[in-house]
C-alpha cells in the first residue's frame, strides 16, 4: 500500500491543466538559459543516449507512474480477437484492394495478399513474444526501446505516430468515398476541389474530418465500451464478408482472370507492399496488453488466431472481386460497392457500402484505442511532452493523447488523397515490423553483462550480413536486374548469415510464449519486409526520408534533452 500513496496524492490534481511544467517538466526546458546549455551539450548527450536501453521494469512500472492514473484491466482473449478483427478487417480490404488490382496487380492481387499475409504472420509471431513478456501500452515502441535503445526507439516512435495519423486519415477519406458512392456514382461527390492546390492534395474532404472526430470521441469514453461496440459491429461485418465471398463466386467468371499477370511479377510485389495496409491493426492487440487481464494467455490467442483467419478471408475476398468484373473496370475508391452495381445487383451495392462503412468505422474506433496508447507510452518516456501520457481518472483512457492524434489526422484527411496516404503508411509499417524482427533476434542472442564479447561480435556480424543481403535482394529487384547470379549471391549471404546465428548460443529463453524456429522465422521476416519496402518505389522512400529527417531534427532539439534529463534524474533518485 505504501506505493499507492504518491499516486493517490497526484490524482487530487485536476486532470484538465495546461501549465508549462505539464508539457516540459525537464530541467533543460526550465529557462532559456538552461535550454541553451542543453543545446551546447548535444553531442555528449547524444553519445550517452544513442545506444542507451530501457528495461522491462522501467516500461512496466516506472513509466506508468507518469500517467498518474492506471488504465483499467478489462479485456479478455475474446475481446482481443474481436478487436483484432474489427481493427484489421474493414480497413485495407475495402480501401486498397480495388486500387491495387486496377493499377498494379490485376487478378494476381490474390497473390499480393498471400505474400503480405505471410509477412504479416511472421511479424505477428515476433509481436506475440514481446507482448506476452512486456505487456505495456507502448507496443513496438517499448519493445524496441528495451532491445535496440533510445534512438532507434525514437525513430520507430516517429514512424508509429506517422502510421497512426496517416492510417486514421486514410480511413476517414475512404469512409467519405463509400458514403458518396451510395448517393451518386462518384466517390469524390462530397469533396471540394481547390484548383490552386497540387494534385493529390486538392480535394478537400470535410466529411472525413467529421467521421474522425465522432469515432475518436467514442473511443475516449472508455475501453470496455468501445470493445463491446466493436464486437457487435464486427458480427455484422463478418456477415457481409460471407455475403461478398459467396455471391462473388456465384457471379464469378473465370474469363475475368485473364490475363492473370497483366503488370508482371513486379506488379504483384508492388501491390503486396501497398496492401500490407490491409494487415495493419493487428498490433493493436499487442498495444492493448496493459488493459488485458491475462496477457500471457490472451495475447497469443488473440494475435496468432485472428491473423491466420484474416489472411484466408482476404485472399478469398480479393479473388471474388477480380472474378466478378474485369480488373480494368474495378472502381479504385469504392471497389466492392460499385462492382455489385456493375453486375446488376444494385441493392447489394448499398448493403456492401453500408457494411463497409460500418467496418471502417470499427477500424477507426479500435485504431483510436491503439494509436492513443502508442502516444501515451511515447509521452511517458518524455520523447513528446508527458502531458499526453495522463490517464483520465474516470474513463481510464488517455484523453489528451487521443485528442492529439485526432486533430492532426483530421487535418491530414482534409487535404491528402488515398494513394498518397497508402504508400506512406505501408513504408512506416513495414519499417517498424522489420525492426521488431531485429529486436527479437537481439533479445534472444544478447543480454547485457551476460553475453560473452566474442559471441556478441559474431552475432552482430551475422545480423549485419542478414540485413545487408536482404537490402541487396530488394535493390536488385528494383534495379530490374533479373539475372540469377546476383540473387543467388544475396540469397547465399542471407542463408549463411542466418545459419551463423543458428550456431550461436541463445542467451534468453521465452518465459511465456516464444517464436518457433529462431533465427529462421525472424530472419525471413526481415528479408520479406525489406523486399516489400523496396517494392514501394522511390517516391515513398523519399517521403519516408523527409519525414525521418524532420523527426531527427525534433529529437536533437527536444526529445534528446528531455530523455537525457529523465534518465539521469532516475539514476540520481535510484
UniProtKB/TrEMBL annotation:
The keyword Membrane belongs to this UniProt entry's keyword annotation: yes
Name of the protein: Cationic amino acid transporter C-terminal domain-containing protein
GO molecular function, one term: amino acid transmembrane transporter activity
Localization in the cell: Membrane
Homology family: Belongs to the amino acid-polyamine-organocation (APC) superfamily. Cationic amino acid transporter (CAT) (TC 2.A.3.3) family.
Spans traversing the lipid bilayer: 75-96, 108-131, 151-172, 228-248, 260-279, 299-321, 399-418, 424-447, 459-478, 484-505, 512-534, 540-560
Biological classification of the source: Eukaryota, Viridiplantae, Streptophyta, Embryophyta, Tracheophyta
Domain of life where this protein originates: Eukaryota
Pfam families attached to this UniProt entry: AA_permease_2, AA_permease_C
Signal peptide, first to last residue: none
Location of the Cationic amino acid transporter C-terminal domain: 513-562
